[in-house]
Design goal:
Elements (H helix, E strand, L loop, with lengths): L12 H19 L3 H22 L3 H9 L8 E10 L2 E7 L5 E2 L2 E3 L6 H13 L1 E13 L12 E13 L7 E7 L14 H12 L6 E2 L1
Helix pairs in contact: 1-2, 2-3
Length: about 210
């Protein structure tokens, strides 16, 4: 059953403001060579950093390192997830980082297509070779009830079919298993929510449905 924790929600206002300031500063630093403008955008980025550090209670140096690594025009990050059904269960992996379960996936790599990134992540985290057959959803992470994060991100979910392999853990995953919709384990909600998984079970039962978006 979907919990109230999975209800769609927006970022806290301070986080939304800080993310917008950081993106504006990043874009300004990318396109302006004038030293006065560089100084102004650097100051804006410092304000965003202070906001995040103060309200999130995360170490100042951690957020500073995150911001310093963001160069070029600011765009949403892409998280890809594979939705693999077998019998009456969906494939989940237990994350070593928090001991909770998620659809296999992660950040897409440069030069991978979205489906290639998904198939690669499924293999690396679960041991199963798959092929992507349908895009189920392309969603704005901020609107999906996930815990907050410093940057804007989209989440792409692909239905995939097993073609080979067997359950195998990895450096990132401690267990691999298939779970019915009424028996989901504790989920790593930064990666996936119960509401999303239940929606994908519905998609499985209604293959004529188009992909969800936004």
């Amino acid at each position: 059953m979907t919990s109230s924790d999975d209800a769609p929600q927006a970022d806290q206002p301070w986080l939304e403001w800080a993310k917008r300031l950081q993106a504006a500063a990043q874009n300004g630093l990318e396109y302006n060579a004038d030293p006065f403008n560089v100084e102004r955008y650097t100051a804006i980025r410092a304000i965003a950093l202070e906001m995040m550090a103060t309200f999130s209670q995360v170490e100042h140096t951690i957020i500073s390192d995150l911001f310093e690594g963001q160069v070029g025009h600011a765009t949403p990050k892409i998280d890809v997830r594979g939705v693999v059904f077998k019998d009456d269960g969906v494939l989940l992996v237990q994350e070593r980082s928090d001991q909770r379960w998620a659809l296999p996936g992660g950040w897409a790599d440069v030069y991978d297509t979205p489906s290639e990134a998904t198939v690669r992540e499924i293999f690396e985290e679960s041991g199963y070779r798959t092929r992507a057959v349908k895009l189920l959803a392309l969603l704005d992470r901020t609107r999906q009830g996930h815990p907050p994060m410093p940057f804007h991100a989209y989440k792409a979910f692909f239905m995939c079919e097993i073609v080979a392999g067997e359950a195998t853990t990895s450096s990132e995953t401690a267990e691999v298993g298939f779970f019915r919709r009424d028996a989901l384990p504790p989920l790593s909600t930064g990666r996936v929510t119960a509401r999303q998984i239940e929606r994908f079970f519905d998609h499985r039962d209604h293959p004529e449905w188009p992909a969800d978006f936004d």
